[in-house]
Structures are given as C-alpha cells and as structure tokens.
Amino acid sequence: MPQTIQRTRWSVRTAEPERAAEHLLGLPDLRRVDVDPGEGPFSFDARRRGTDLLSLWSSSCTGDVRGEVVAETAMVLFWLKSGTGSVDDDHDVPTGRPSLFRHDPQQVRWCGYELDLIRIDRSTVEAVAAERGAWRAGPIEFQPHHIPEGPELAAWWLMVRTVAAEVLRGPGDVPEERERELTRFAAAGLLTAIPHWPVGEDGPPPTAAAARFARAEGFLLEHAREPISVEDVADAAGLSVRGLQDAFRRHHGVTPTVYLRRIRLLLAREELESGTAESVGDVARAVGFGHLGRFASSYRSEFGELPRETWSASRRGR
Questions:
Q1: pLDDT over 60 at 203, yes or no
Q2: What pairing do the DSSP bridges indicate for beta strands 91-92 and 106-121?
Q3: Using CA atoms in the order 269, 275, 281, 284, what is the torsion angle rounded to 10 degrees?
Q4: Smaller CB count within 10 Å for the chain: N or C?
Q5: Between 252 and 83, where is the model more confident?
C-alpha cells in the first residue's frame, strides 16, 4: 500500500500582540520576533497548510512586525499583497513580487501588511537545481535581492497557482510520492524565477545551462512574446520535439505549448490589471496572441472572466 503524508492545517486570529508574536515564533524559520501594535485597534491573522516538504502560509497584521529569519531546512519566499516590507533593514520589497530569504540570518520587517509565504524543502531544490544545471547536487546560492519580472515572474505565478490549488483545496492525506512530485514542481518554479549557481562559484558557471531542458525553458521564456513554435524551442535546446514534450511534462506537468500559453496569459493579465493598456487587442498582440477570439476564450478559462472585464475594472480603479 502506498505511503501517505498528511497536510496539516492551523489558523489563528487574535487582537493581542503577545499572542501574535507567540504564533509567529511557531514558524520553523523565525528565530526572533517583535510585534508593535501601533496606534488604533490591533489585529493579526495567520493560516498555514502543508507538510515539511511543501507548505503555504498567509498572514495579515495591522501592526509592525520585526524579526530574524534563518531558513535552514527550506527555501522560504514571501510576497506582499499590501503594506510595506523590507529585508536586511535597507532593501524594500515591492508588492506582488517574491523575495527569497538566504540561508544565513536575515532581518525582516513587515508593516500593516497582507502577505503569502511558501516553504520548499531545501534538499529537493538542490537536487532539482543539479538536474537542470548539469552539476553535482549540493548547496546553491541565489542572486541576492533578485526581483523577477516579465516571463520569469509569470512562470513563478504559474507555479504558485498550481501548488496553491492542490495544497489548499486538496485532501489532507496524500500519497507521499505525489507530495514529493509537487515539491519538485515548486522547486522548478523557484529556480526558473531566480538566478542561482553552486556555492563556491563566483556566479552562474558555464555549465549552468548545460542541461537541455534548462536551455529549452530559458529560450521559451526569453522569446515568450514572440511567434515561436515548439520546433524553435526544441532546436534551441538540441532536443527532438518528442524529447522536448517529454521534458516539459516531466518538469511542469504540461506540454510546452500549454506552458507557453499560460505564461502569455499571465503576462496579459498583469498588463490588463495595470490600468495603462490602451486596449485588450494591444495587450493580446504584445504578449504573442494573434487571434483575439482564442485569446479571450483561453483567458476566461484561466481566470474566470473575459479580458475586457479585467481591463475595464482596472481602468475604473485607476
């Protein structure tokens, strides 16, 4: 009988700063935390679901939270949905962009915030990085304070959407093999979004793109807005079309065509939500869609609304 693993769930809501600090210290990566309630009514809310391999955490707080993070057993990333935040005291983090904590102690501050956080097993990330980069498995280093943009950011959100759908809405008991597969999928999303290399190197080594899949994925993201074909991606990576299809199914669970379409849809949504786009058609063409009808249909399937609805709402909000 296959072994199972349990996704645990906990949540807390409090108006007491001391209790909020107590629950924050329950997180495996926080070593010290101070909670300043500020002026006015104080509220703190936090929810977590997942396993030691992969978990998601959401929190909101009206006060000022300062702490020290030491991410030893996992790669830990957070992204602000509202409020302000900084790491290392002097690096402000933008809203809606993931920030990765280093392995060594790091100072963090969040003020009047709503944020989400993901923990991905460190050994899994290192193993997936070695496969993708064609180097020996071991500790890796990430480009400090890197903030992904464009297609690499879209690839990140594609991973987060997929992981959240399964972790938050899936069953409590899952096959351990499936949880490990999902953790590898999350690791691949992280590695796509943030440049990395083996510890001890000065930067990404010449072999960082040696793995054919890494070259294929890099080419696809670099040219995501252009009219590229599966054959173009396969040629750039030195793969057959069938080999490319198999590699994408193994790493992302979908074909390269589906992956590219979803990246383009996320790019389109970011443009439409900005409130600066002149028209839906301009956005569709800018991200690589040549047929507006198919774009609208795919967009509605992905996000549950038509692109014109997103565009109109953002224009009104702006």
A1: no
A2: unpaired
A3: -30
A4: N
A5: 83
Say how many C-beta atoms besides its own lie within 10 A of residue 303's C-beta. 17
Q: Which amino acid is at 157?
A: W
Residue 103 clears pLDDT 90, i.e. is over it: no
Alpha helices in the chain (DSSP H): 17-24, 122-133, 150-169, 176-193, 212-222, 230-237, 241-252, 256-273, 280-286, 292-303, 307-317
Phi, psi of 145 (to 5 degrees): 55, 25
The residue with tokens 């499936």 is 178
Annotate 160-170 with b (16+ C-beta within 10 A) or e (fewer). bebbeebbeee
The sign of the torsion formed by the CA atoms of 292, 298, 304, 310 equals negative
Q: What is the pLDDT of residues 10-57, one digit of tens each?
A: 899 999 999 999 999 888 888 899 999 998 899 999 999 999 999 999
Cβ neighbors of 40 (< 8 A, separation 6 or more) are 62
Q: DSSP code of 207? A: G
Alpha-carbon separation of residue 239 from 145, 212, 216, 316 (angstroms): 33, 7, 8, 47
Which single residue is written with the structure tokens 């900005």?
A: 274
With 70 as the cut, is the pLDDT of residue 318 above it? no
Which of 14-23, 124-133, 174-183, 193-202 is predicted least confidently?
A: 193-202
- Burial group, residue 153, by CB count within 10 angstroms (0-12, 13-18, 19+): buried
